[in-house]
């Protein structure tokens, strides 16, 4: 098990190079089980609530591997990894986030790495406001299957929570696309 953090230049699993990763640092470590973060660097400052992190463990070749992300303030998350490549959507708390990534083959951890990300905040810009419009005679519910109906499931509060989560994921996706196209 290794504990190093690298950033690498790589080709995507589809065979085409990903343009955003062309300027990243080539891996210099000789250990094939080092974990490489492909779209973020150590101590990077980001401004979104969620972030999509791409990574790779060079010598991992399993189809049933997984990446586990541990956050000191939030629950651990687990994502599939294929042939050493992984993507993880990670929630960030305000300030410094010290994340631990474990690459597992079965129950065995073959690579572990720490990544520190600083989630900054814009104090001079107001947050984006999203609105949900309701008709005057609305029951303040939305359509849902019978087993998903009731308070907290298909009411106005649930709609607001779903909209908020969707906005955070849009923001993470847009940040990733901007990064890949050289705009961030």
Automatic annotation (TrEMBL):
InterPro entries: Metalloproteinase_M10B, Unchr_Zn-peptidase-like. It comes from the Eukaryota. Pfam families: Metallopep. One of its GO terms (cellular component) is cytoplasm. This is Uncharacterized protein. It comes from Coemansia brasiliensis.
